[in-house]
Amino acid sequence: MPSSGHRLRDVEHHPLLAENDNYDSSSSSSSEADVADRVWFIRDGCGMICAVMTWLLVVYADFVVTFVMLLPSKDFWYSVVNGVLFNCLAVLALSSHLRTMLTDPGAVPKGNATKEHVESLQLKPGEVIYKCPKCCCIKPERAHHCSICKRCIRKMDHHCPWVNNCVGEKNQRFFVLFTMYIALSSVHALILCGLQFISCVRGQWTECSDFSPPVTVILLILLCLEGLLFFTFTAVMFGTQIHSICNDETEIERLKSEKPTWERRLRWEGMRSVFGGPPSLLWMNPFVGFRLGRPQTRPRKGGPEFSV
């Protein structure tokens, strides 16, 4: 039985490709192991600008924390402990951002809705499959088409311009880690800003920074605003993602009020399915499973992504 009306309409009004269709599926004939070895990247102008802005804002925060607040401090261990902690959070946040941006979110191979491929599936009589009319692929259950990635994404939650990618089945854990580490680093920066303001007021703004008092005030105020905005956004997104994982329901499914036809993995089972394995510190590590992508020189057609 079809799981939702829009998929049924896709089948009714857009039948599977026949042998004489002109769609070129040769560029999508790679195996899933071959795809896993390549780096995924979306060439979207807005997304690339947002991703660069994210990195620049984190670098700015690190600059203010390190050179405005910590290095001028006379308390050596205060500077060392907070410097190491903040920079570790920043590195983990940016690493999670990269993994989210450069990981295939679960894209369905394009152009596989051919008659030959359907026959090779050996479907049972009366069994229904769905075809996406936009990327001409056989659409798995819970997959949705992204108009920016130009692909159907398994368990697509949403497309986030700040990571220039969809959040889906294969990169959701990295997006959760990104929001968590940005929220933690924002809280840390706000606490340091508060302590710095108190220190500067008590010292009459004479020795609290290597910069002039007006410049110091401007830099600290901008960092406070950035920290408040980043913390609010990422904390809300982190809570939303954890709620979705624990209820085994993506944001798109929630907004469309789709009735689940799949067996839900609730709470810890859902967390294990996203982060992998039993609860451990490895869940917090964005470097788990990292490997360099294999160079790919064959041109890809019909999509905004490329592989390297």
Report the structural category.
mainly alpha
Shape: elongated
Q: Radius of gyration, rounded? A: 24 Å
Amount of beta strand: 5-15%
InterPro entries: Palmitoyltrfase_DHHC (IPR001594), PFA4/ZDH16/20/ERF2-like (IPR039859)
Transmembrane segments: 48-70, 76-94, 174-198, 218-238
Catalytic activity: L-cysteinyl-[protein] + hexadecanoyl-CoA = S-hexadecanoyl-L-cysteinyl-[protein] + CoA
Enzyme class: transferase
How is this structure best described in words?
The protein has 308 residues and is mainly α. It has a domain at 43-105 and 157-282. The chain is 49% helix and 8% strand. The protein has 9 helices and 8 strands. It has helices spanning 5-13, 32-36, 45-70, 76-102, 115-120, 172-202, 213-247, 251-255, 268-275, and strands at residues 40-42, 130-132, 137-139, 143-146, 151-154, 158-160, 165-167, 305-307. The chain has a two-stranded antiparallel ribbon with strand order 1-8. β2 and β3 form a beta hairpin. α6 (172-202) packs antiparallel against α7 (213-247) and α7 (213-247) crosses α9. It is elongated, with a radius of gyration of 24 Å. It starts with a helix and ends with a strand.
Write the layout of secondary structure elements.
Blueprint: H1 5-13, H2 32-36, E1 40-42, H3 45-70, H4 76-102, H5 115-120, E2 130-132, E3 137-139, E4 143-146, E5 151-154, E6 158-160, E7 165-167, H6 172-202, H7 213-247, H8 251-255, H9 268-275, E8 305-307
Antiparallel strand pairs: 1-8, 2-3, 4-5, 6-7
Helix pairs in contact: 3-4, 3-7, 4-6, 6-7, 7-9
